[in-house]
Design brief:
alpha/beta; Rossmann fold; 5-stranded parallel beta sheet; 5 helices
Length: 125
């Protein structure tokens, strides 16, 4: 069974490292890259072809929903999970309109792992 390839994008490096450590403990994930901005994420997605991109909503240069839209327009098969502290209904609507899944950062670690795994199995690998 192949591992689910994950790209983590957040402007706070300790958060990226924490998510990476959590996913790597599971054994069925491979974190292929990390980035601190939406524009960098576009490059990393092109270079590493992840199955899932875990990204924050609010980042320098490009929001998570804009990142999801750009990836969809470029015909990327990566699934996008917007992981954020916001639960403002407009933010949720923007994420879904962009074709992204949405999860709050205060969810449990188990829930995060489950959602990333589910998205990874939906990716067209």
């Amino acid at each position: 069974m192949s591992r689910i390839r994950v790209l983590i994008v957040d402007d706070y490096q300790p958060f990226r490292a924490t998510v990476e450590a959590l996913l790597e403990l599971e054994g069925d994930f491979e974190v292929v890259a990390q980035g601190g901005s939406g524009s960098r994420a576009v490059e990393l997605a092109r270079d590493h072809a992840p199955d899932v991109i875990v990204t924050d909503l609010d980042m320098p240069g490009m929001s998570g929903d804009e990142l999801a839209r750009r990836l969809r327009e470029s015909h990327s098969t990566a699934r996008v999970l917007i992981l954020t502290g916001s639960d403002v209904s407009d933010d949720v609507r923007l994420a879904h309109a962009a074709g992204a899944a949405y999860l709050r950062k205060d969810e449990t670690a188990d829930r995060l792992v489950d959602v990333v795994r589910e998205l990874g199995t939906q990716s067209n690998r």
